[in-house]
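Working notes for the structural subgroup meeting. M.R. asked for a predicted model of this chain before we commit to crystallization trials. I am recording the input and output together here so anyone reviewing the notebook later can reproduce the run.

Input as submitted:
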Amino acid sequence: EDLARMSTHRPERFNRVLERSLKAGFAVNLEDVATGINSFAVAIPDHTGAPFASISVAGEPHRFPAAEGARFAELLSQEVVGLRAKAAELFPRRELAASPDPDIEPN
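Returned structure, recorded in token form:
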């Protein structure tokens, strides 16, 4: 109920998170969604570079202070590198054996 109330009656909270995140280059939520909880997140890009998921940390502000946001984003970004390497190992991209369209060459 509280989350629904905040999201439908408090768009300024969402706008604050969005503006702060765009400026920082990573997601920053400083008690905007839940009092007493800060969170930081970075995107996980797909093979084209487009974001398809994210990884985040969240907790009490004394454990996840705003001043350390860039450090958390860097640590999360390092994890993303590892996740992408593991995904590439588990799911190697396959070349097309044959194209259904005769005018398109396989990779």
